[in-house]
Each structure stands twice: as structure tokens, then as C-alpha cells.
Design brief:
The protein has about 50 residues and is low in regular secondary structure. Helix content is about 10%, strand content about 0%. The protein is built from one helix and no strands. The protein is extended and about 35 Å long. Pfam families: Calpain_III (PF01067).
């Protein structure tokens, strides 16, 4: 697992793993409906966040 920002070279050399006809950001789609699974929740903020 990678902690931190990924540069454009990462995306250049790691292709998308799933495709969706309705969702534009392909890297966020698991394409396995109705199956139990783990997931990662990414939250973006304009201000620095403090975690506990």
C-alpha cells in the first residue's frame, strides 16, 4: 500500500483495473455489484485535516 500522493508516472505505468459505462473516473470502480468486499474511502479536503 502507498501512503501519500502518486505522481503521473504511477498512472502511466499502472493501467485501470475496471471499466464502467456510467462512471467517468474508471480508477474508482470495482465492477463487482452485489458482492461483499473491502473498500478504501478517500476524502479530499481543501484544508489540512488532523487524524486521531
Amino acid at each position: 500500500m502507498h501512503d501519500g500522493h502518486l505522481n503521473k508516472d504511477f498512472f502511466r505505468y499502472h493501467p485501470s483495473k475496471a471499466r464502467s459505462k456510467t462512471y467517468i473516473n474508471l480508477r474508482e470502480v470495482s465492477d463487482r455489484p452485489h458482492q461483499e468486499a473491502d473498500f478504501c474511502l478517500r476524502i479530499f479536503s481543501e484544508k489540512k485535516a488532523i487524524t486521531e
